[in-house]
Structure formats: structure tokens, C-alpha cells
Amino acid sequence: MKKDLLLPEPGSLHTASSSWSRRDILRAGGAAAVAGIGGALTAGNAWSAGSPQKVTFAWSAVAFCLSPVVVAQEKGFFEKNGLQVELLNWGGSTDQLLEALATGKADVGVGLIHRWLKPLESGFDVKVVGSAHGGCLRMLGVKEAGVSDWKQLKGKVIGVSDINSPAKNFFGIHLAKRGVDIEKDVQWRVYPADLLDVAVKKGEVQAIADGDPNLYLIEKRNQGVFAEIGNNATGEYKDKICCITGARGEFVRNNKPAAAAVVRSIIQASEFVAENPNEAAKLYAKYSPKIPVEDLRALLTNLTYHNHPTGSVLRDEVEYFARDFHTAGVLKKSTDPVRFANHVTVDVLA
Question: Is the C-alpha dihedral spanning 110, 114, 119, 121 positive or negative?
Fold first, then answer.
């Protein structure tokens, strides 16, 4: 079971007596979103009949959470929305991916919002136009080291795959919110992602933070060793996005209907993943041959694929993340989160 790193907010509507589960609520919201998108298909912004619009889509095939991209291609969602999509498997850094978008090497791309905000602040002409899902970052404590709760992290070493990784940024910010001095009370140490458990066995770290499928596989081969401290599908972030869809600014300005078609396709594919995790896992398996289909299916069911805001709701979430990053000093003091969110977010479905 997933455990809250972040305590429930005062006045939260979520109670044990509620007859609606979180997944029920997200599904209802997702259905409403798709219904709204369906309406947009018949509105003035709908893609007109004719030759398919060619679009280059940058993504990372190693990120199982981006399975909606594969589903959109394999199940024909791109085609149904008037697109002919070439998938570009981007193996470089997020900065390089955003540069590829900004310079026209790709038209659209997807990735973790925690990786995108700082480069976007630097001036890349890339706009946030949609989202795919929420919840793919986790932190695990080592039971033998006495770490099973965030309150036990003081004085401990946390292993991460990159000192600027999404997991490090996310958990660093929220430990700070809980009064932990993330520069003095804890130490962050970098290891190759698939060797984080080796660092645990050597006693070099007492907690690890990364994304799935890596942590899932580490837990699987080290059963009973870890306790989940938190993840970004709980607490104040339980209904918020994780991976976003972005497009180069020129593409959005000059071809808004095509950008809207991409957003619709990814949302429709995300809904398919939510309702058909087994088939989605089978479709994605060829991109991740080392992970059994049953493990992929289990991983997909843990993500919030019904959670994909657009328009003003998406803008508000970008602002929410920007405020966190601003408070933590990741964004410049001179950056206004409101102006930043207004600048980088575009409602292509309007």
C-alpha cells in the first residue's frame, strides 16, 4: 500500500467514510474530460478532414509511464485525430529534449514536470499544452536502518540517480515543507539508478528515491528490505500531474489544431491505459523487454491515468509546481510563479 509522505491538508474532503475512492473520482473526472474533448472535436478547433498532419513526437522509451504514447500510436488514436506521428526515442537529457523542441527537431514531447520547469524558466520556446498522468516518483526507507517514515530521515543518507533528478527535487521540496533542512539534516548521494540497492547493501544509504519501474524492480529483488516513505500520488499531490505534454512555441502558434489533436490523442490513450492496463502492458512490452508483462501491468495500475488536466486547470497546476520550486530556490527569486505559468501554459483546446 502507498503511504503518505505529505500529511492530509486541513479541511480535506477525503475521509474514510467517503463512498467514492480516489480512483472513482479520477475516473469520473477523466470521463468528463474526455466528454469535453469529444465536444471539442466537433467545434471550430477540430482537425479538418484531409491529409494527416505530420508530427514528430519526442519521448523516452525507457519510461514505462509514457505508455499512452505507444497506445496512441498502436491503437490509432493519433490517426483518428488526423495525425501522422513519427515517434522519436529521445535518450538525452531533458534540456536537450526541450532544445530539440525549441529548434524544430521535434514538434511535441512528454516528460516529468519536475524536469521541465527550470529549463523553461531559462527561456526555451516550448509551451505546456497537456498532461498524461500523475504519480511515478517514490521514496523507500531501509527497515534495518530504522527508516520507515520521513521523520526518521534526519542524519541519514538518501541515494538518488541524479542530484537534479525529479525524485530528488520532489522529495527535497516536501521534506523542506516538513521542517527538514535538506542541506544539513539529510545527505543526498548519487548512484547509477539500477545500483541503488547495491548502495543499500553496502550500508552507504538508508533511503532511496527514484521512479518506477526502477524502484519496483529493486523492491522485487529485495523483498522485505524496504518500507515506502512516500510517493507523489499521495498527500497534497495525490490528484496532481506528473508527466506533461509540451510543444514548440512556433508549432502551437502556427498550428494550434494539430497541437490540440496531439493533446486529445494522449488523453484518450491515457484513458485506454487506465481501463485496459493488461493490453497496454502488452503493447509497451516490446519497448521494455527486460520487464515481464505482469510487472508492467502492476505498475500501470498504480498510476493515475485518469488525471490529465487541460486549460485553466493545467495552468493552475503548473503555477502550483512553480511556487514549490520558487520557494525551494530552484527557480530564481525574480521569477513570478503566476506570470511564469501564464507564459509557459497554452490552452490549445479553447
Answer: positive
Helices then strands (H, E): number in the chain?
14, 10
Q: Is the Cβ–Cβ distance between 214 and 221 less than 8 Å?
A: no
Residue with cell 515543507: 177
How far apart, in Å, do the first and last CA atoms of the chain sit? Answer: 39
Q: Using N-to-C axis directions, what is the helix angle for 277-284 and 293-301, rounded to 10°?
A: 130
State which amino acid sits at residue 306: H
- The single residue listed with the C-alpha cell 467514510 is 17
pLDDT (tens digit, 0 to 9) for every residue of the chain, 350 residues total? 344 444 333 333 232 333 333 344 344 444 444 444 444 433 334 444 468 899 999 988 777 778 899 999 999 999 999 999 999 887 767 778 888 888 899 999 998 888 889 999 998 899 999 987 777 789 999 999 999 999 999 999 999 998 888 889 889 888 988 889 988 999 999 999 989 999 999 999 999 999 888 898 899 999 999 999 988 777 777 778 888 999 999 999 999 999 999 999 999 999 998 899 999 999 988 888 778 888 888 888 877 777 788 999 999 999 999 999 898 888 999 999 999 999 999 999 98
Joined together, the cell numbers standing for residue 87 give 515517434
In angstroms, rounded to a whole number, what is the distance separating the alpha carbons of residues 269 and 94?
23
- With 0-12 / 13-18 / 19 or more C-beta atoms within 10 angstroms meaning exposed / middle / buried, residue 46 is middle
